[in-house]
């Protein structure tokens, strides 16, 4: 698996940053293989002010970090190794992307949206510290059990 961070010219003298994969990788949202992942980061081709130069540096640094994270994830998947970054993922964000994928497929997603509203109202507000900033002394299993028990008693 190889990838390269590249630039694409846009109108107005800007460049768009994207990752070019070879061979193509599976995109679960579009449900197809893709060679490019556009990062929605732009840089000015000929920066004239200090602000534009600094913004270009920041966007390149962010793109480089995304590139390294994607390559690490693909290499771990390729060698069938466990990806520890997946444990720190946001479940509500995953669920929201799942619903978006279902709605693109023409599926009625009203019941999914009601579950998302419930998660946003009750779970995220009460248990943000447990989900996003875990205590290193609490294992993932214990945290899941704790959240489940809180939901049963408060739900």
Short description:
This protein is an alpha+beta fold and 155 residues long. The chain has four helices and three strands.
How many domain units? Answer: 2
Tell me the strand order in the biggest sheet: 1-2-3
Give the low-confidence spans. 129-135
- Helix fraction, binned, reads 40-55%
SS field, number of helical segments: 4
- Give me the secondary-structure category: alpha+beta
The strand count comes to 3
Mean pLDDT: 79
The H/E string reads EEEHHHH
Please describe the biggest sheet, giving its number of strands, its sense, and whether it closes into a barrel. 3 strands, antiparallel
* Approximate shape: globular
Strand content: 15-25%
Estimated radius of gyration: 20 Å
Terminal-residue CA separation: 45 Å
Task: Provide the descriptors you would attach to this structure in a database record.
alpha+beta; 3-stranded antiparallel beta sheet
Description:
- The protein has four helices and three strands, in the order βββαααα.
- The chain has 155 residues and is an alpha+beta fold.
- It has two domains: 2-83, no CATH class; 89-154, no CATH class.
- A hairpin with a 4-residue loop joins strand 1 (2-9) and strand 2.
- The longest helix has 29 residues, at 50-78.
- The termini are far apart.
- The relative contact order is 0.09.
